[in-house]
Amino acid sequence: MSNFHGLDSITLNPGDDLPPLAPGTIRLYNMRFCPYAERSVLYLAKKNIPVEVVNVNLVNKPKWLLEKNPLGKVPTLEHDGKVVYESAVVNEYLDEIFPESSVLPKDPYERAHQKILVERLSSIPTALYGVVRSTPETRDAAVEAIKKALANADSLLTDDFYGGKSTGFADLSIWPFLERLGLFALRPELNLGEVPSKENKKLIAYIERMKQQPEVKAAMRPIDQHAAF
């Protein structure tokens, strides 16, 4: 999308200089394959906010990233000399400073419900990483956990999106992990079968709808790139 500058820029490593930041520019410190950073890429795309993206190496971090964020994580957002980090915090901050394009609802109850949905969907990233890191001894339990998490996600879909008729806070929070489910098809030794399975009919249709959203098209990467990473 035209609001991004540097989304596919080279990854900066220790020893690389911190690029100068022009006054008034919003900068996102990012790693191209981090699902948590992708949450904020999606948010910025949805809100169509002009942003400069600086991609960093998270294994060997530049010293200046740690000076910006002592946790050394992404996403980290810098704006007018102020720095905020953690994906949910960054995204809520963006809604606060650009309320005219707020993704979170204005109504306090609906706003709270979107955050509750994120918590109720949090079993997906936990289960996804559980499968990826499983051993032959723990695989059956890990496979059962991902199937249970996806069945739960299917049951929570009561409209086109978790945000209703359009993508909302919960959709942009969970999508990066659903995007990576395609990795399982490249790992036949896991014996997962189809993920999601044909029983997850609403979730399958939802994933296809999500792939058509402009913010998702801007942020998602081909599954072979995720696999190579």
Overall description:
The structure is a single chain. By secondary structure, the protein is α/β, with parallel strands linked by helices. It has two domains: 4-101, Glutaredoxin (3-Layer(aba) Sandwich); 108-228, Glutathione S-transferase Yfyf (Class Pi), Chain A, domain 2. It is 46% helix and 9% strand. The protein is built from ten helices and five strands, in the order E-E-H-E-H-E-E-H-H-H-H-H-H-H-H. It has helices at 35-47, 63-68, 87-97, 108-120, 123-132, 139-156, 169-179, 201-211, 214-219, 223-228; strands at residues 4-5, 26-30, 51-55, 76-79, 82-85. It has a five-stranded mixed β-sheet with strand order 1-3-2-4-5, covered by helices on one side. Strand 2 (26-30), helix 1 and strand 3 form a beta-alpha-beta unit. Helix 1 (35-47) packs parallel to helix 3 (87-97) and helix 4 packs parallel to helix 7. The longest helix is centred in the middle third of the chain and has 18 residues, at 139-156. It is globular, with a radius of gyration of 18 Å.
